[in-house]
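hey so i finally got around to running the thing on that chain from the lab meeting. sorry it took forever, my laptop kept dying and i had to restart like 3 times. anyway pasting the input first so we r on the same page abt which one it is
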Amino acid sequence: MNRTLEKNMCKLPDAVINSEIPDLGERAEQYIDSGLQYACKSWHKHLVDEHMACTPEITSALHRFLEEKFVFWLEVLSVLGAAREAVDALDLVTKWLEAPPVLELANDCFRFVTGFFQVIDESAPHIYHSALPVSPQTSMVRKLYERHAVPLTRIAHGLPDSWDPAIVTMEYSRVRIVAWSPCGRFIAISDGGSRAEILDAATLKRLTILESPQGHTRKLVFSQDARLLMSFNAKPEKFISWDFQTGVLVNAISPEQCDDSIDCYSITYSSCGTMFGVLVYRPHGFGSFTICTYDIRSGTHIYSHFVEGRIIPNIWTHGECLRFAVMKSGSITTWEVGFASRNTPIEIESLSLPDNSLRDSYGHWFHPTLSRLAFVHSWRIHVWDAQHSRFLLNEFAWAPDGISFSSDGRFFMYREKRLSHIYLWKESPTGYNLHRKLNCGMATPNQLISPNGESIFIFGGSVLQLWRTTDSSTSFSHKQTDERFIVEFSPDEMLAAVARFKDNTVTVLDLKSGDSLLIINTDIEVYGQGAAGSTIVAVGREKVVTWNLPTRDHVLNMKANVNDSIRTVTISCPRMLSYPYPLEFASISPDLHTIAIVEYTSPFSRYLHLHDVPTKQCLGSVLVDEGRPWFTSDGRQVWYITDRDEVANGLTIVEDSDCGAIKPKRLGPTNQPPNTPWLSSRGYQITDDGWILGISGKRLIWLPPHWRSLDTKARTWSGRFLALLHSALSEAVILELEE
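ok and heres what got predicted. didnt touch it at all, straight out
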């Protein structure tokens, strides 16, 4: 395989995806013989064998293959429609290898494949056009194969230095409900609506969509063999089962005695997948916990068992029986009942509990195989080993939530409410030790650990992240703030001024080289800035500060502060009130003479003010909706657009013929305002799945998911340049597009 793999061995055209090549199958047959096809898809299944030792000869051959043929192997898998085999191969290899340097390279290759899986899967040519050019500067794959990159877009600024700590990051619509299949290969997600989506658990690639006939999804659960997926839907209450591999709706069953709404705490399928049990609470009428069993094929209710005592809200399957645990009188008792049985549940086992610690405790989660109980009491998170009557964890925690074990009990996890910290603990002979502290950067994250404990799925807002618990090559820390970037390009497109919204630092970039020319500590919260010629302007709440760029050549990263400024102008908005954050947006005209400011005057109203900087004069104010202002290229008009309806309104700056004063005059509204900054004036487009298309439709570059944003206004276009500005980025990304 080492001798036959080479770049573009199927003679594919540039800048296309595989589905756009009509004779792709014929090319594969012509250039990739059957032996090579098998070797590319299956070599890892023969290499990593339980009877095969990791010898120096094997590791040396593997090292040589990854150093010399790695991206060519990915290209062949992409052409064959088998890119998923690369994920499995590298996952096996990284677990099988024992020591660097081969392990370090294999880990880096794994990060490359998972981080760029979508583009590898969709387009063999864009392995060279997109994946290699946007890989981090310190990536071993980049250093080894950079000479093979064929970029169609230049990254002027923002190329990451190292891999993101999350192995996969995706922009998605809001996710509320998640389930991981017992086999570990699939993740089911829902936004709480009527449908569920199935994702590949290694790449987060969407595999299928399952539509419910009605209702809102409240819980998802897989069958033991991962063939069926159940959704508990509310309004009206239904238990809906799909064969998710075929997409066929198996049955939709109404809960027994459902005159009142119910809370569904836990669902479990029988081992054969023909029945299921649910733990429900009826707040009215019964006012107690009930375990109900159903037959999926007939859609009928089998029996209901009322539970006495303090039940732990996770039921589970044991053979063809259903089990649950109840706490009372210093003990935890496991009970069992057959799915099809009408008999009273029988007691299986009773173990001791630390009774004092369970008073006023909450958040209980039980690991049935190991008889471990996790709970929260008195600002501490506890894990109790009921088999051996000892604590495995007793740790202070700030309002822990999302408590869970991996299936084998090797890992234990929780998050702290109101923080973005997620704590992962690993089993040791003395108890659970802190293994990783994840700062995922989300304001209110939720998390789910994979059944084998090797991956963590984190979801919150519109972001999905996949973390690898066994990855020692990256730090489990993710820097993110709540504020996006703001970027202003100079009219000649030679410079860009970059700042994070409401931060006090402005960086001036040379767009030709991508170098930082000047870093300014403005001493104000920056709401807008501009660059023209050798002048830089920053706008704060009440000040406009101006600097001159240094004239010395070849000086990079020069520092400046407010004492180096050439002018500071104090502005006063006539309707400004003492609201905590009155200023919302600011924009500067291309000649840096006029400033448009949108500010709150109450929590529900905003005004747009126009200021003339040289004269410090307020030109006028108008009431506006929520939106962002921008100037036309001649500086004579300023437009603003609402986030709700995409309708733009504008002002034109005119001179009053009677008194000679300059004042704004209303324009609009219009659906197609001129020079909208988040739309390209040259006809470039960004597709929903992350491709930037040229004027002719040519695919110039694929944007990694963590570079994208569902908010189109989190980007700024200027001629051939595009700035990506959303808050998940560690710094703004600026691309130069050329056909």
